[in-house]
Structure formats: C-alpha cells, structure tokens
Specification:
The mean pLDDT is 95. Helix content is 36%, strand content 19%. The protein is an alpha/beta fold. The protein starts with a strand and ends with a helix.
C-alpha cells in the first residue's frame, strides 16, 4: 500500500516536516507492508524554505543581512536540490516573530534585507527565485528591498529617504536607473495565498497592519503613504501594479516585487510543482493532508484544499488530519473522504499544543488501524 503524506504545518507547534514524519511513523507501526512518501507542503508562509529544502534535498546558504528593524542579523536562504532555484522566505529575513511585541511598529520596519539576499544569490549566479511572502513584519511596499537593489528614492530636499514605512509619504523623486541590471535575467516567482491589492480597505495596511502592531492612526498613515509611493513609482515606470491581486502581500512587498518583473503564484501550487506532488499522487493508494485549524476558509488557497483537489482529479481518496475542526467544515465534504481532529477529549488550545505530537500520533494510529481493517477485509 502506498500512502502519500502531504500536510501543511500546525502553526505554532509543528512544522510540516514534523507532521509528515509523525503520521508516517504511525502508519509504519500499524502496517507491515506500507510504503509512505512524505511530501511536506507550504502555501508561501512560514516554513516554505525548510519544506522545499527537505523535499528536494536542497542546501541552506547562511549570510548576514539587514533585519526588519534595520540591524544586521544572521539569516539564510536555500538552493533547491536541482541546484537552479534560490528560495527566500520573508519570515526568516523580516518576519514578525523576530521583533519583540513591544517594539512592533510597521512604520519603522524594512524589507531592505530581502534586496540584500536577492543580490547575494544573484552574485552567486542564481537566476531563478521563489520568494515566500508570509509572516512579514513590514509595511513599506518593498521600498527597502528596492533601495537595496539600487533604486533611489529622494525627498524634496534631494536626500535619500530611510527604507521604512514612515518614509513612504515623503518620497518626491524616484530613480530606477541604478537598479541591478541582473534582475532582467531573473525569473522571480512570488509564493503567496494573499490576493489583497496594495491600498484601500482591503489593502496591506488595513487588513494586515493591526497584526503587525499598527494603531488605527498608523494604519491610515501607512495606507496613504503606500498610495503616494505607488503613484510615484508607477508614474516613473509608466505602468500600474497597485491594484494587482496580491500587490498587498507582505505589507506591499508584493507590489515591490511586481515592479521588478516578478510574477505571483499560488504558494501551494509552487511548492507542489517543486516537489513533484502530482507524480506522487498518481502512485498513491491513499493521500493524507492536514493543517493546524481546518474550517470553511481551508477551501481558499490553503494547502489541504490544494492537495484534496489534486487527489480528487486523480480519483484518489484523501483524508484530512487537523489540529482542530472549525465552522463550516462540512464545506470540505467534496474534497475529503473524512476529516479528523487530533483533540480526543475536551481540552484548551494550550493543552492541545503542549501534547500535539502524542495527539497527532494517536489519531494517525487509529486512522491507520481503520484503513488496515478495511484493506484486509
């Protein structure tokens, strides 16, 4: 029996790799003749780097770059197993968890380090990129990244603006003439499940600003700043990007990447293509996916939904194992044979997270026993 295990992470408690290996352990302990293929997934957020390095047997490159608060940090990016694609995870360079809660303020954070990492990889000869945008601490529209790449943004006095969100409203002149010409040789794929435009009520500042520590007044300031910044950049380039779905991802870094020629993709699809998920689905007798919380939102760009849809196309049974099941879970009936929560009794979220490994293992063992009973009969 061939089992494909392709989950997302249980955010805050288990990586997608850990989830995969625990489910594999459960099935191999129940079955004597099972062949499990682990294919941990990600949707463009935290974990995309580790997931792709694990699944493609890639390598990690360590370097020093500018962190979200402007100080130098130790970070990394990856090279896929084929040696061709550089993988950059926003959360590892300018991620929200990198900033203490009392210092979170998207007016003061920067994407400058993303530009530095891009330059580092380009100097090593890489021309293909996947950039995962989830988990950002920034709201600078990609201003910092563009400055690191050689673009110049000056105020009314002709001085260069700081590469932070607070500078957006003060930009008077834009000059892309110094931007790295190597970018024209690059293929940059943005992995994101966010479809928000750059500005407005559905834009980066209003939707994601609060979780990054922005006050209502700061949200308005950032939104107006992004609109001003975008108008200056678009006038300079003669092309509009700010209303493109996904331009608002990662505090507008989506916009910054679009203006240098990047293309937006479903994060789950990008990861699936890299790890050859489709081929593994074709060979599988059973597919198992999962995530920390499953509910009606799972249908919209989440990993389990992507895996379930691909499994359905190949007429393969797919099961979902989640940390918890929420509102509207019945909306997933057409994608999964069944869905399961690892919570086996009334418990708090904290208790579940503390015991997540045992709870997941026990749930997977029970599912494996049920599958084995039907298989032998």
């Amino acid at each position: 029996m061939n089992v494909l295990i392709a989950p997302d992470s249980y955010k805050g408690s288990l990586s997608a790799i850990d989830v995969s290996l625990i489910i594999k352990k459960a099935f191999t302990n129940v079955f004597e003749d099972v062949h499990c293929v682990t294919a941990p997934m990600a949707d463009g957020g935290e974990g995309i780097l580790d997931t792709l390095l694990f699944s493609t047997s890639g390598q990690e490159i360590h370097l020093e770059a500018t962190g979200p608060l402007g100080d130098k940090i130790s970070t990394s990016y990856g090279i896929s197993g084929d040696g061709e694609t550089a993988i950059i995870e926003m959360a590892k360079v300018a991620g929200l968890p990198m900033i203490p809660k009392d210092q979170q303020n998207p007016l003061m954070t920067t994407t400058y380090g993303i530009g530095e990492v891009l330059l580092h990889a380009m100097k090593k000869g890489y021309r293909k990129f996947i950039i995962g945008l989830g988990g950002s601490a920034t709201n600078d529209g990609g201003l910092g990244m563009l400055q690191a790449l050689g673009a110049r943004f000056t105020d009314r006095n002709g001085g260069s603006v700081q590469p932070i969100g607070a500078s957006l409203a003060h930009i008077h002149e834009v000059d892309f003439s110094g931007i790295s010409p190597t970018l024209q040789e690059c293929e940059i794929k943005i992995a994101s499940d966010v479809e928000n435009p750059l500005c407005g009520q559905e834009g980066a500042s209003h939707v994601f600003g609060p979780q990054k520590g922005a006050t209502p007044e700061q949200i308005e300031q950032l939104d107006q700043g992004l609109a001003h910044f975008a108008s200056k950049v678009e006038k300079h380039l003669g092309q509009s990007y700010q209303r493109t779905p996904g331009a608002g991802a990662a505090g507008g870094l989506g916009f910054g990447l679009l203006v240098i020629g990047a293309q937006l993709y479903s994060g789950a699809k990008l990861v699936a293509d890299q790890i050859q998920l489709e081929n593994n689905i074709e060979k599988a007798d059973l597919i198992i996916t999962g995530e920390g919380q499953s509910d009606f939102q799972t249908r919209y760009g989440k990993v389990p939904s992507y895996v379930g849809k691909r499994a359905k196309e190949h007429c393969k049974p797919c099961l979902l194992i989640a940390g918890s099941l929420g509102e509207g879970i019945d909306q997933l009936d057409d994608l999964f044979v069944s869905y399961h929560s690892i919570m086996n009794k009334p418990m708090s979220l904290e208790e579940a997270m503390e015991n997540v490994e045992n709870l997941l293992y026990e749930t997977a063992v029970n599912i494996a026993k049920l599958v084995k009973a039907f298989k032998t009969n």
